[in-house]
Amino acid sequence: MLSFISAATTTLATVQTPTVRGFFSYFNPSSPTWDIFIIMFFVIATFLYGLTLGRARVVVQIVSSYMTMALLSAAPFLDKIEARTPLNHTVFYLAAFMTVFVLLFLLLSKSAFHQHLSEGRGTWWDVLILSVVQIGFLTSIVLSSMSGFALGHLSGVTQIVFAKQPAPFIWTVLPIGALIVIRGRKDRK
Questions:
Q1: Does residue 189 form part of some domain?
Q2: Taking each helix axis from N to C terminus, what angle separates 34-74 and 167-188, rounded to the nearest 10 degrees?
Q3: Which of 37, 46, 66, 100 is most open to solvent, judged by the fewest CB atoms within 10 Å of its CB?
Q4: DSSP assignment string, 19-39
Q5: Could you report the per-residue pLDDT of 157-174, keeping only the tens digit for each?
Q6: Domain range for 141
């Protein structure tokens, strides 16, 4: 996990100062940009998400996210369904992702898996860490599925943190690492 954090730090360190200055120049309250909405979503969703759902449901959502990615990448009929819809690829993928994700979350929430997770109580810090990596993971999925044209409207920093490689890979691995670290701490107690 340290190598992934090192890769993320190296990637962020290579962001040139003008890009960072350009990113902060986007913060104009009179004409908000998508970057501001993404940052606001990330911060607000992280806190509300973890506080309202709790550790067990956040873990179920993380597992549902991975299962959804696996199912959508392996579904042989998805291209045929997409061809029959008037939606562009990005909108179709996001709609399919959300549909499968919500279904899996609802099914797993009623399963023995969720009941087993609900037995232990996590600290607020555990919930916060899991919330950050889950919201970052979902934000990365959404932004990395967008077209290059749409991404061009975002600042370079937002693209590097969420959409350009290796960011999607890092955001995909971080929830796994967080689950391992949090589970390891719980076992030692």
A1: no
A2: 80
A3: 37
A4: HHHHHHHT--TTS--HHHHHH
A5: 888 888 888 999 999 999
A6: 2-23+33-184
